[in-house]
Design goal:
With 304 residues, the protein is of the alpha/beta class. Helix content is 45%, strand content 16%. The protein has two domains: 59 residues, no CATH class; 189 residues, von Willebrand factor, type A domain (Rossmann fold), CATH 3.40.50. The strands form two sheets. The chain has a six-stranded mixed beta sheet with strand order 3-2-1-4-5-6, sandwiched between helices. Strands 7-8 form a two-stranded antiparallel sheet.
Length: 304
């Protein structure tokens, strides 16, 4: 080794330093605010299975409920008999759990109280930082109303005000299975956006919607704000669509698990610094005598 090219020790130590620094990325990016609007109207109480798209009758729903209360493993029972709302709540809870830790979450429902009719929308979880157990408790408390209406446009206009005073990127994610059954249209939503001055993207996930007309209306709502409209016909598809709407990067995953990664980071830094010192010490702190080579014999001797 001539000293002009770096040794393996130097390369290894620098690699460890860079890797160790890389696992603690910059956490000061733009914050994200997401409000989920969940349809809890009567149609969401219909059975929803990956094997069969058609809604089954009330007798099957009773059998499904009984099946879930027996000793059959819950996951198996869930896969066999679930309502659209049960599927949506479970997938939504999983989707929220994947989001970066600093994401602010809010949940609004519509159609859960029949007596409120076309005014039936409530913000049940204000946008903010919430622990997983609170989100689980709120979702578990959502129940369908057998004759609940579907005031989608009212829910969207009300949601605009839920973002007031919040900095960062704003998103609304609507999970619904039906067309709006109350007065209102897209122009009401756009007017409210202009009135509040809040920039927000609206994403709509249609749960097993087959009507082209309904799809067209919901798609126009999403696309007018730069959002997207998607169809989900099974639990797996619903999960995939939510992943596409709120993609999670490697940096997000690292930041979410940062407390457990910090010890690894410091260990890597200590090892890297130690190896770097091992490599630097003989080159800069230990003086060696130059060597002279006799041209005739090629023997080396120390120069005194």
């Amino acid at each position: 080794m001539t000293g002009k090219s770096p040794s393996g020790w130097a390369i290894l130590s620098l690699a460890l330093l860079l890797f160790g620094w890389g696992i603690v990325p910059n956490a000061h990016g733009e914050e994200t605010n997401i409000e989920y609007i969940l349809d809890a109207s009567g149609s969401m109480d219909a059975l929803y299975t990956p094997q069969e798209d058609a809604n089954r009758g009330i007798s099957d729903q009773i059998v499904g409920w009984f099946y879930e209360q027996t000793t059959v493993p819950q996951e198996k029972a869930y896969a066999a008999f679930s309502t659209k709302l049960q599927v949506a709540k479970r997938v939504l809870e999983e989707a929220i759990a994947r989001l970066p830790q600093d994401t602010r979450i809010g949940i609004r429902v519509l159609g859960a109280h029949v007596e409120r009719g076309c005014n039936d929308t409530q913000l049940i979880l204000p946008i903010g930082a919430h622990p997983p157990e609170e989100i689980e408790r709120v979702l578990d408390g959502i129940r369908t109303s057998p004759f609940g209406r579907t005031p989608i446009f009212l829910a969207l206009t009300e949601a605009m005000h839920d973002f007031e005073g919040l900095a960062g990127k704003n998103r609304i994610v609507v999970l619904t299975d039906a067309e709006a059954t109350c007065p209102g249209d897209l122009s009401d939503v756009l007017a409210e956006i202009r009135k509040t001055g809040i920039s927000v993207k609206i994403h709509v996930v249609g749960i097993k919607i087959s009507s082209d007309e309904v799809q067209e209306v919901l798609a126009s709502v999403a696309e007018s704000t730069g959002g997207s409209f998607r169809i989900a016909k099974s639990k797996q598809e619903l999960d995939i669509q939510l992943r596409k709407i709120t993609p999670v990067t490697l940096t997000d995953v690292i930041l979410k698990h940062l407390p457990t990664l910090l010890p690894l980071f410091f260990l890597l830094m200590v090892i890297a610094l130690f190896l770097l010192l091992v490599w630097l010490y003989p080159r800069f702190f230990v003086k060696t005598q130059p060597e002279e080579v006799y041209p005739k014999w090629g023997k080396k001797r120390r120069v005194s």
